[in-house]
Every structure is written in C-alpha cells, then in structure tokens.
Design goal:
Elements lengths: L1 E5 L7 E4 L9 E10 L2 H9 L7 E2 L3 E9 L11 E4 L2 E2 L13 E2 L11 E5 L3 E3 L6 H5 L2 H14 L7 E4 L5 H12 L3 E6 L2 H9 L4 E4 L5 H9 L2 E6 L6 H7 E9 L12 H6 L3 E4 L5 H13 L6 E6 L3 H9 L6 E5 L2
Helix pairs in contact: 3-4
The structure holds NADP nicotinamide-adenine-dinucleotide phosphate (NAP).
The site of NADP nicotinamide-adenine-dinucleotide phosphate has 35 residues, from α1, α3, α4 and β12.
Length: about 325
C-alpha cells in the first residue's frame, strides 16, 4: 500500500510502498477513499525536526472498513466511515487529558491507502455527503463547533466576527454560525474571498491587510458579541477593541504568529471572556455530525489533488490561495 511519510523538517515527503497492516483487538482496517489537508500538516512539516524512520501524516479521512481485530463485529465490514482524529481526549469535557493526541502525528494518519485505528474513532459517514465531501469535515468542523457552541455559546441573532475566512476552520465556523441565524462578519487578506463569503451568507467583510480595517468593522457592525480567531498575530489585540461589552473571544490558531500587547483595561472593563480551545470531545464530534446532517450542510471544497501530488497540495495551502478544504483523492 502507498503512504506519505514525513521524516523531519529538512526532509522532503516520501511516498513509500509498505506492507498492509493487520488489525488486532478493537482495531479496524479502513480502506481510505479520501483524505484532506489541515494547517496542522504545515506546522508539523515546519516545526518537527526528527520523526525517526517516518510518520504517515494526515488527520482527516473517509473510507470503508475492510476488516477488524478480534473485538470487532464483522457486521462493521463494508461500513462507509468518517474518522474522528481527536484521540484519547479523556474524561473532562472542559479540557483534554495528558494522553490526548491528534491523528497524523505522532500516530500514523490518513495519507495512505489503509488506516489502522480503534473502532472508537469510527463513525458512519453522513449520508448526504460523498466520500470527498465527508473528508472535509473532521478536524476543522469539530474545532469550529466546539469554539462556537461549547466555548462562545452562540445565541441566534448575535454578531460574530470570524478572522481569515479562506481557512477551512474559519469557513466551517461561518457555515455553522450562518445556519444558527447569527449575523456573521469576516476578515480576509483577499478581496475575492470576502465576496465569496458574502455570497455564502456573511453580512460584511474587511481586508485585514488594510491598516484601517478595524474602523471599517466598527462602522459596519458597531461591535461583536463573539469573535472567533485562528490567526493571532499583531491584530489580536485589536479584537479586544472590537468586542462588545460582555463579548467572548475564542482563539484556536496562530497562523499570523504570537500576539503583541493587549489593553487589559479594555478587557476587564468590558468584562470580556477569552477562551482557548483545541479539537473536541467524542460528544462534540457526534453533535457536530448531527448539526451538519440535520441541516444538510455541505463543506466548502477548494480543490482536489491525488495522493501522488501531495507536495502540490501542500504548496497550494502554503500560498494561501485556498477558499475551503484541500482534498486528497486516495482511491
Ligand atoms: N487548535 C486546534 O484544534 C486547531 C484546529 C483547526 C485549526 N487550527 C489552527 O487554525 C489555523 C487555521 O487552520 P486551517 O486548517 O483552517 O488553515 P488554512 O486552511 O491553511 O487557512 C489559513 C488561513 O489563515 C488566514 N490568515 C493568514 N494570515 C492571517 C492574518 N494575518 N489575519 C487573519 N487571517 C490570516 C488566511 O485567510 P485568508 O486567505 O482569508 O486571508 C488563510 O487562508 C491554523 O493556525 C491552525 O493550526 C487549530
């Protein structure tokens, strides 16, 4: 079987032919159909110096169960599945425990013809989604769902600002918020992405490359009840000015780097809440799937590459050309 191996940040990705693994105990062997990229793959490729003989990358994927270990009911063979990449969350819904991991590093991930994984992380593929559409769901939709509903506790009608809308996690956040009848505003570094997001239901958008974007945002919206940020960077402190009194700011990314100075007076006098979040629990994964299925929501897919063209897909993400998910066709 083919698999995409990462050995360390100074090594090119390698596509190797390796032996098909054999499931034991509660493991299932999933014949992968599609996988999808996340910014996490870029972080791993730039920040991890030594992955030994190599780790198979990839957190998102869909496929068909081919076989299972002795604790797997053969009734599951042939099931069309989506994979939850949030591994070993633990018992506390507020925060994951010490053994929490994300599929695709340090454990072997989905950029492969086959994936070996515990049946705990396997869910039936939503019926209204094709295999390629379903591959766009797991990591970013789970994180967006927890950020918007479990952390910020969105209420219909609230004004929500989402930064960097071209990213897949930001787009899932926008789709969930629009379906929940929020009044959604977005930022992007590209005018055409702002326009596309408006066609999908955003009220207005602002180009974060314009030094006056926060003034434009304040003029358009007055202020925001909720801000969901995946970028951080020097603009992060401005979010505290844009938040309404009693507002909630949630961050789960650092695409633009660490943050500068924060005006604490603004923070406490407006009685703001600041949340960090990462991935989500099994219950949140189920609720997220239910939300998507119940409202017939389809992901925004930017492009599709083959497994052999993984490097082109990675380069496409690095250039920030995408609007939505970058998909990998495996079979
Ligand atoms: N903690 C978690 O569990 C978790 C889960 C998912 C994602 N994340 C993090 O969230 C971030 C986005 O992930 P992703 O997979 O959705 O990435 P992605 O698809 O690669 O999108 C990245 C987007 O970041 C935006 N961006 C770049 N510079 C920006 C800036 N200065 N201000 C605002 N936006 C900026 C760009 O949006 P435009 O093209 O519109 O300008 C770009 O398209 C990453 O940092 C990722 O690690 C974390």
């Amino acid at each position: 079987m083919r698999a995409v191996f990462f050995k360390g940040n100074n090594h090119p990705l390698e596509i190797r032919d390796i032996k098909k693994p054999k499931p034991v105990k509660d493991q299932v062997l999933v014949k992968m159909k599609y996988a999808a990229l996340n910014h996490r793959d870029l972080w791993i490729m730039s920040e991890q110096t030594n992955a030994g003989d190599g780790i198979i990358l990839g957190s998102d994927g869909t496929g068909i169960i081919e076989s299972g270990g002795e604790d797997v009911d053969p009734m599951l063979y042939g099931m069309e599945v989506i994979i939850n990449p949030s591994l070993n969350w633990g018992n506390n819904p507020v925060v994951h425990g010490d053994s929490f991991k994300i599929l695709g590093y340090p454990d072997n991930g989905t950029f492969s013809d086959y994936l070996l994984i515990s049946k705990k992380y396997i869910f039936e593929k939503p019926e209204h989604l094709s295999f390629s559409e379903a591959a766009a769901v797991p990591l970013s939709a789970l994180t967006a769902y927890r950020a918007l509903f479990s952390k910020a506790r969105l209420r219909p009608g609230e004004k929500v600002l989402i930064t960097g809308i071209g990213g897949s996690a930001a787009l899932w956040t926008m789709q969930f918020a629009v379906h929940y009848k929020a009044n959604v505003f977005i930022t992007s570094g590209k005018q055409e992405k702002l326009e596309r997001a408006k066609q999908l239901g955003a009220t207005d958008g602002f180009n974060y490359k314009d030094p006056n974007w926060t003034e434009a945002a304040r003029k358009a919206a007055g202020g925001f009840d909720i801000i969901i940020d995946t970028a951080g960077g020097p603009d992060f402190s401005k979010l505290f000015e844009l938040a309404m009194p009693g507002g909630r700011i949630v961050n789960f990314g650092r695409t633009a780097g660490n943050v500068g100075e924060i005006n604490l007076r603004n923070f406490y006098s407006k009685q703001l809440s600041l949340f960090g979040t990462t991935m989500g629990t099994r219950d949140e994964f189920l609720s997220m799937l239910d939300f998507i299925e119940g409202r017939n929501i389809k992901p925004i897919i930017d492009s599709e590459f083959t497994l052999e063209n993984i490097q082109q897909a990675i380069d496409h993400m690095k250039q920030e050309q995408q609007f939505g998910k970058i998909i990998l066709k495996i079979a």
